[in-house]
Design a protein that fits this description.
alpha/beta; Chloramphenicol Acetyltransferase; 53% helix
């Protein structure tokens, strides 16, 4: 009903009206014995030919996970605020940041790779296996389409789309993260090591603060209806249908233009539901853009469990399905989502350790006689435990 209300603004009023009506009473004068007239539908060979020529629904696979530690993400946001008012990354910002990192660092399990390589020897499934291998080894940073809530500015519009590519290369975020983690582990083991960590820590957190500001400004532009995606939609809306279809096909032919206007993935987060809600799952849709490969849907239920549903439309899914290997396509999708969940938990724990680390006046000696702060000892122990 809530979804219907969003779409129509009428569901609640109709529910109230119907609830007030008296119960339906069937009297004897009501003819119930006679069946309604049904019209026969007999398809001709020409009808079947027409149906075969039409575009069909693209096969897809779906995976789901609730492994993400949302409490750790919330703790990280709290720690960010305590550290600096400039660190304004939201939960969704952190999810999107790691989505980009995951895309360029994902390594498929060797068993999956071996199974696909063996499948290339099958003449019927060779092309499907090759496409799947190319997909799981594709470490491209994707352009992501993000639905932004525009109801505060324009209740009639409700949602505005925004395309965003996390600038990992420009900010050198993956390398900066690894350097800071390594410096954290060795900050008490050599003279001047803590100074090196302190420099990297400040630089890393300042970079994250800048990224948070970039996220925030981009969402403000999208909510105001000024994003490239919204501008393109408005431009097309007033053109004849035939011209709309022609112009709509142009981005599909140029990857750069498609990434700017429509993106390659959809990442939709409805946030945390109200405490008395029974909603536990959410599945997002994608437009008719053939270049859309993945659709991520995120919801946090009333029990504070974050659940992500991933729809996989990559070309190898259809090919594997056609050759009778749908289970393999499903395992590829499941592993991709599982690795994302495990990776973001590790990423958040490392960020917690990095942000929390600082000089302390409470000193304890270690086994080698080196004076080390208790906070540093805790951080090192936590880091080693996380690695294990």
């Amino acid at each position: 009903m809530a979804l219907a209300e969003i779409l129509t603004n009428q569901a609640i009023s109709w529910a109230t009206y119907l609830h007030l009506l008296p119960p339906l009473v069937v009297t004897e004068d009501v003819a119930v014995a006679e069946r309604p007239l049904s019209f026969p539908c007999r398809l001709t060979p020409a009808d079947y030919t027409l149906i075969e020529a039409k575009t069909r629904v693209v096969p897809e696979t779906t995976a789901e996970t609730d492994l993400i530690n949302v409490k750790a993400i919330i703790s990280l946001r709290t720690l960010f605020k305590q550290r600096s008012d400039l660190l304004q990354l939201t939960v969704n910002d952190i999810l999107l940041l790691y989505r980009a990192i995951h895309a360029i660092t994902y390594q498929p399990p060797s068993t999956l790779v071996a199974e696909l390589e063996a499948l290339t020897q099958d003449h019927k499934a060779q092309k499907a296996a090759e496409m799947a291998l190319a997909a799981i080894h594709d470490n491209t940073n994707p352009a992501i389409l993000i639905p932004v809530d525009a109801s505060q500015r324009s209740p009639r519009d409700r949602v505005h789309p925004m395309t965003f590519t996390v600038p990992l290369k420009a900010l050198d975020l993956p390398d900066l993260h690894e350097q800071t983690v390594q410096a954290l582990r060795y900050k008490t083991r050599a003279p001047g090591a803590f100074s090196d960590f302190d420099t990297l820590q400040r630089r890393y957190l300042a970079t994250l603060a800048g990224l948070g500001e970039l996220f925030n400004r981009s969402k403000e532009i999208a909510a105001a209806g000024e994003s490239t995606s919204v501008g393109t939609i408005r431009m097309l809306a007033h053109l004849p249908i035939s011209l709309q279809r022609l112009l709509d096909k142009i981005p599909h032919q140029f990857d750069v233009l498609n990434d700017i206007i429509k993106g390659r993935e959809v990442f939709s987060n409805v946030g945390a539901v109200v405490p008395d809600s029974t909603l536990t799952r959410f599945m997002t849709a994608k437009d008719d853009n053939e270049n859309k490969t993945l659709a991520w849907a995120v919801i946090t239920d009333a029990n504070k469990v974050m659940r992500i549903t991933l729809r996989d439309f990559r070309p190898h899914v259809a090919m594997l399905t056609m050759t009778g290997h749908e289970d393999l396509a499903e395992r590829i999708t499941d592993d991709y989502l599982h690795s994302y969940a495990v990776g973001i938990n590790r990423f958040v724990q490392e960020l917690l350790q990095i942000t929390r680390a600082s000089r302390e006046t409470f000193i304890v000696p270690d086994g080698n006689g080196t004076l080390t702060s208790k906070r540093q000892v805790d951080d090192l122990a936590a880091g080693e435990s996380a690695n294990e």
